[in-house]
Amino acid sequence: MSQGKTNKFAQFWDRYSTVSILCIMILVFGILRPKSFLTPANLVKIIEQSSIYILLGLGEFFAILLGGIDLSISSIMALSGALTAKLMVDFGFSPVLAILVGVVLFGLGIGVLNGILVTGTGLPPFIITLGTQAILRSLVYILTNARSVSGLPTSFQTTIGGHFLFFPVPVMIALLTALVLSLFTWKTQCGRNLYAIGGNPQAAWYAGITVNRHTVIAFALSGLCAALAGMVNIARLAAAEPNAGTGYETYAIEAVIIGGASFFGGVGIIPKVIIGGLIIGTINNGLNMAGVSSFYQQLAMGILLIVAVTLDRFFGGRSK
Amino acid sequence: MNIVEMRNINKSFPGVKALSNISFSVKPGEVHVLLGENGAGKSTLMKVLSGVYHPDSGSIVLNGVEHSKLNPRLSREGGISIIYQELSVVNWLDIRENIFMGRMQSKKLGPVSTIDYAKLNQDTKKLLKQVNLDKYEPNKMASELSISEKQMLEIAKAISFDAKCIVMDEPTSSLTESEVKKLFEIIRDLKSKGIGIVFISHKLSEIKEIGDRISILKDGNYVGTWNVSDLSEEDMVRLMVGRELEKSYQEGHGSFGEVVFEVKNLSRKDGKVRDFHMQVRKGEIVGLSGLVGAGRSEAMEAIFGAVPKTSGEILLEGKRLTIHTPYDALKNGIGLVTENRRETGFFQNFSNKRNISIASLLKKSKFGGVCGLIQEKNEKEMAEKAKLDLQIKWAGDAQLTKNLSGGNQQKVILGKWISAGVKVLIFDEPTKGIDVGTKSEIYKMMRRLAENGIIVIVVSSEMPELLAVCDRIMVMAEGKVRGEFDITEATEEKLAMLATGNGG
């Protein structure tokens, strides 16, 4: 390949890699299963299924943006869901109040706790959140006695899990969250500072950025997004399962990384996380439609991740 | 016969002649001092000796064997052993493993070969005795040793290689007085065994005490070799720094306003700075001179709030400032251009525009930048202004700063602080790795800032730089202010004397 061609491909890849992967996948599954995959109903379903991956990805994005990671989001998702369900079913909270306490306050609180543990101990986020992942998962089992919490108010189910003007509410929640967080990262000083810290924490400190406070904010956002995913999850399933979301943190990490964020921090944008989440949803759905055994789904995901990041390494301007 | 015989060594790097026609020799049982300013070529010469750099021309003879293609292995086999300033002791290995790393005696245990610990311990004990470390067992962890003991361990390692010539690069820079005495005892012991020592140090009194011969380098040139007893300390300083001064950037000297910036009783938690004080008058540029590790940068970091301090008062325009973090410093109008651009100066993932605006954004916002939106138009204007003011050469404000030259990167960092409207700007080694042309631009910029009423403080290891830009130069040594000179009476000799703990 000539130099010029390589450069052109590199430029193209740098900008459109994530969208390209999504298009290629839709194309492949569309050809394999034209009748069942490429129907409007199925496409809406994919987007709806992806909403949880997107929300988790958004949370993970902030941890990865700082050059860290948040492994606890899957457990936060489950615990927040279980707590919100319990509040409504056993304690008679109204859905609004339950969401306020079990999702917003709880999600932010756990995130802040993660952040304080990371900044306070100086340990890598990997270790802290590996710990909180286990602790929170255990708390889910203790809280629910390892039984699923069902009998959620219908109003909750139909609002959060339903449709608004033919549009699935989970998708709207995910997109609205993404929009707000996009503006946050693009337009606010705090958002800019997060990129600075991710790029060079030392330089950020010397530039006058309060690194610890920002780290706590990043983990708080991560916790909030995970809790929102938990809320959407219980609304869609009409119950809070104690093992909900187990292993989903890997989906979230994959969504962020396939979305082009640097694992070393400081690089990445939110719109690409949305596409990353859609890619995860599309693979899961497409392989199901194609009748591929679920044994192979992880295989496909793993290969995709490595290929996407390898291409980035060689053609993307950002990972160097 | 000399152990080391280097003749007419030349070495160039792109754009720099690092060594020109240097000759250097080491006799058995002598301490040969190598003296020169930072950047005089001492390290380069030693890297040639250790085979890390290949000279462009010249001959190297080790123990009578001429080496045309010296490499680190041949150098070691030729009896050369170098103990660098940053010790290479591995903390998580024990003493014997540190000494015999990669070459442990093994014995056969049936079909398996295992490490022969008995032999290893025996050898290690013998070595430890020679460096006065025999109070320790060979299996003591290296992390439990003090810095001076680690140095002894390095010497033991050098002896274990059967070194004929041991190079010590500023071995006393982090030692206490009594530790230095111990080191000298060991050096004398090594001498008596016929081992030659190359001793690199800036401390003239030590040189007088331990040195036999002295070679002086200046800007990569060979000044000469003398018997230490034939030179006074003044002679050494004169020979080391004597050269033409750079063009001066002081103008309208002597008409300064009142004191606007003052630091009193500043001490750091880690003891690297003790009871530091300084006063700066309006329009004045104050320089901080001293050896590496004298506490200059450390004092500035403490003022800036980047490291914790135990005491200290900072007054700006008569107001007492509370500074615990760089954020506090920025809020109060203090900026620091750090020594390491890449590590602490700019963001590799940021464009020029973003690197310039980052501190200004913070300054306007509350909570360390949580509140408030970014005005992209302002940001663009800010970058444009910095580009014009500082004559930054870039492909565009969206270009990544990491792709600029060192000089332009430094200008972007300067632009960051100027845009933030700081009242005090501290420069730490501002022209490190920067070409001559950009250097003078930065000097002019400093002067302009001072004329505009900004307090400019300059830390530099290059004395000509301080003499060229400062109105007053303070000298630090061992964490304390040792004295100061008005520019009219400051000379390199005086600064060096005070910094090395002589005179003053």
UniProtKB/TrEMBL annotation, chain A:
Tell me yes or no: is Secreted among this UniProt entry's keywords.
no
| The protein's name in its UniProt record | D-allose transport system permease protein AlsC
Q: According to Swiss-Prot or TrEMBL, what is its membrane topology?
A: Multi-pass membrane protein
For this protein, the record's Pfam families field holds: BPD_transp_2
Q: Which InterPro entries match?
A: ABC_transp_permease
Q: Does Oxidoreductase appear among the keywords?
A: no
Query: Origin organism of this chain?
Result: Oribacterium asaccharolyticum ACB7
User: Which segments cross the bilayer?
Assistant: 12-32, 52-79, 91-117, 123-143, 164-186, 216-239, 251-283, 295-315
Identify one Gene Ontology CC term for this UniProt entry: plasma membrane
From TrEMBL, chain B:
Record keywords:
ATP-binding, Cell membrane, Membrane, Nucleotide-binding, Repeat, Sugar transport, Translocase, Transport
Q: Which residues form the ABC transporter domain?
A: 4-244, 254-503
Q: Where in the cell is it found?
A: Cell membrane
One GO CC annotation: plasma membrane
Which InterPro entries does this one have?
A: AAA+_ATPase, ABC_carbohydrate_import_ATPase, ABC_transporter-like_ATP-bd, ABC_transporter-like_CS, P-loop_NTPase
Kindly give the Pfam families that the UniProt entry links to this protein. Answer: ABC_tran (PF00005)
Main localization is membrane
- What CDD domains does the annotation carry? ABC_Carb_Monos_I, ABC_Carb_Monos_II
* One term of GO molecular function: ATP binding
Q: Which Gene3D superfamilies match?
A: P-loop containing nucleotide triphosphate hydrolases (3.40.50.300)
PANTHER family attached here? CARBOHYDRATE TRANSPORT ATP-BINDING PROTEIN MG119-RELATED, D-ALLOSE IMPORT ATP-BINDING PROTEIN ALSA-RELATED
Output this protein's name.
ABC transporter domain-containing protein
Q: Which organism is it from?
A: Oribacterium asaccharolyticum ACB7
